[in-house]
Amino acid sequence: MTALEVHALSHSFGGLTALADVSLAVAPGERLAIIGPNGAGKTTLFNIVTGIFRPSAGRVRLFGRDVTRLPTHRRAQLGLARTFQISTLFPRLTVLESVLLAVQGLDPARFVLYRRRAAYGRLLERAESLLAEWGLADRAHQVTRQLSYGEQRQVELILALAGAPKVLLLDEPTAGLSPAETASVAEMIRRFSRDTTILLIEHDMDVALDLVDRVTVLFQGRVLAEGSKDEVRRDPKVAAIYFGTDDA
Amino acid sequence: MALVLLVALPAVLSSYQLSLLTKMLIFGIFAMSLDLLLGYAGLPSLGHAAYFGVAAYTVGLLALRVANNFWIDFPAGLLMAAGMSALFGLFALRTRGSYFLMITLALGQVLWGIAFGWRSLTGGDDGLPSVPRPRLPLPWSLTDGVPFYYFVLFFFALAVGALAVIASSPFGRALVGIRESERRMEVLGYDVWRYKYVAFILAGLFAGLAGTLFVYFNGFVSPSYLNIVFSASALLMVILGGAGTLLGPALGAAVIVGLENFISGYMERWVLVLGVIYVLVTLFAPSGLVGLARQRMRSSGS
């Protein structure tokens, strides 16, 4: 069974085609990079998979279940998590509070309004152990917007990991980071559980290829190439769009 | 400590001052109810008077036309306020930001129009006069100032306690998350609409509590307790005191009620004064009096 399957997906904004007949499938535990130039439709694909956009046509399946019409929060309950390219963290909340919200999101107590959250010790325990595991324990009580950009990207990843997702979509996790910060975020991703299926959008081909098993190349809303890292590296069409030997 | 003070105050206050304090507590409940929307969930409602007014009119009409029975009138007032917010929430929560502001305003004005126009039921512009205070099986009569003050204080304490638990519950923390980033909360598995809807109904319910207490207190309700000026002054109470804090809005309410009482002795342009206060607060204390006090404490501490 596939972890995530996208079938004949199309999407347009007004008259502009963002995705055209895109299909891909990812096996449980597999790590797939989605690369392609700006405007190739990568983030649109993530927005459709997470239910932020409804596709014009096509299907999305999560572990065989058709989730095309399911709202975003229901997909999250099924084990789908993501990060955002542009940070949408909780700027005025502390890091610990943010992680607590992430942990609480998949907890049965998330809708309780007649008891203090502090009564649910498991939430705080899990949040603190996540922060300790990913080396941000000393930042727990700092307000998110006061963190460095690199640390904010780390918080972004921790929020996505909080629910122990089965499928994780990472949208350019290293965008805008210095080489040193990029290396530490890449190291973090390498340490993610091998049970988690990962789809990674990445601008930097070297970073991407280092982290994944397989690659899909999107170009102008279509799948241009897919295959193992070597296959994609040798593909002349990919070389053309990345090195501009064509007029594309 | 504040509670001890509130319990002890009747011993030293004149009956006039005590009635002012009673009004502050009632409007404090009203402001705190709006803060659940504005400060916690980030929903700026400009029609919150609707739920206050509906409850006040419900209790007034029942007590005058049916029976002055606290055990029927009071729950009916709360129920009408909660029901009305459950209905209005369905429309208002389809929108965001300034559109939310506009639609809550419009819905509130619809109720104002009904209260103003349906003279045979509501008395129109003249309102409902001589609403009696409830008779309860207590050794004191609520028509006296001091017992009525304690009656209101009891509900004020209840409201503060309930709102404190709600604000620190998983539900209340999620509202704060929704205020900060709705999209993120959806991706984390929260049914954002449901949280906002429940918050909207709860806010209506507590506004209704304030409305029922107010009509008993004032003995009179008119369409002006349903209109936009009243909704806007509630917003100002919240912002002045400190949106997103538990007691800040109650403090804001006390200041506004006190100022209104003081200034209306000298001039009639109260709304103008409200406007000036609003400008001053947004310029010099955007996080309200509570925010200002916290800043002071932090800078003197370090």
The CATH superfamily of chain A bears the name P-loop containing nucleotide triphosphate hydrolases
| Low-confidence runs of chain A | none
Counting DSSP H or I runs of 4 or more residues, the number of helices of chain A is 9
CATH topological fold name of chain A: Rossmann fold
Shape, principal axes of CA atoms of chain B: globular
Would you mind describing this structure in some detail?
The complex is a heterodimer of chains A (248) and B (302). Chain A is 33% helix and 24% strand. By secondary structure, chain A is α/β, with parallel strands linked by helices. Chain A is globular and about 55 Å long. Chain B is mainly alpha-helical. Chain B contains 14 helices and no strands. In chain B, helix 3 packs across helix 10 (192-218). Chain B is globular. The mean pLDDT of chain B is 92. The A-B interface holds A 50, 52, 71-73, 76-77, 81-82, 84, 88-93, 97, 100-102, 104-107, 109-118, 120, 123, 159, 162-163 and B 165-166, 168-174, 176-177, 180-181, 183-192, 194-195, 198.
Ordered list of secondary-structure elements with their pairings:
The complex is a heterodimer of chains A (248) and B (302).
Chain A: E1 4-13, E2 16-26, E3 31-35, H1 42-49, E4 57-62, E5 65-66, H2 72-77, E6 80-82, H3 95-104, H4 121-133, H5 149-161, E7 167-171, H6 179-190, E8 197-201, H7 205-211, E9 214-219, E10 222-228, H8 229-234, H9 236-243
Parallel strand pairs in A: 3-8, 3-9, 6-7, 7-8
Antiparallel strand pairs in A: 1-2, 1-4, 4-5, 9-10
Helix pairs in contact in A: 3-4, 3-5
Chain B: H1 2-8, H2 15-41, H3 49-66, H4 70-92, H5 97-117, H6 119-122, H7 145-168, H8 170-180, H9 182-187, H10 192-218, H11 228-241, H12 248-263, H13 270-284, H14 288-301
Keywords for this entry:
heterodimer, A: 248 residues, alpha/beta, Rossmann fold, six-stranded mixed beta sheet, 9 helices, globular, B: 302 residues, mainly alpha
